Amino acid sequence: MFHELAPHDPHDKCGHHYAIYLDLKNQCFEVLDSMRSAADANLTTHAEFFINNLKETWNRHYENSKVHIRHFPIEYVATTKQGNTTDCGFHTLEYLAKWEGRLVPVVTAATVVELQKIYTWN
């Protein structure tokens, strides 16, 4: 997900990346954010808006499916928090690459440096 943090400021086009997973096995949505937690109203409002739209879309396109997601709760997964306001993309990429619903990938400043090298090389 990409969340524009200052939508009414034409000069601030900075935003924040975080991940939302649909976990069919455990019947829930999981939110991983490297900067915020479930106590942050901006995160919960943004995530719930997206998830509610996803539930509506699922219901419309998969109404005959054996899987129904309308009742799935949202879990805000505790993650290592980034030490600045610029590394959220690297944290999110690691979540996307490694999240299996059990162990949260630990992303440190050293991990970000290595990822920058890898992505630059690639």
TrEMBL record:
Gene3D superfamilies: Adenoviral Proteinase, Chain A (3.40.395.10). The keyword DNA repair does not apply. InterPro entries: Papain-like_cys_pep_sf, Peptidase_C48_C. GO terms for biological process: proteolysis. GO terms for molecular function: cysteine-type peptidase activity. Residues 11-96 form the Ubiquitin-like protease family profile domain. Keywords: Hydrolase, Protease. The keyword Membrane does not apply. Signal peptide: none annotated. SUPFAM superfamilies: Cysteine proteinases. Pfam families: Peptidase_C48. Belongs to the peptidase C48 family. This is Ubiquitin-like protease family profile domain-containing protein. It comes from Triticum aestivum (Wheat).
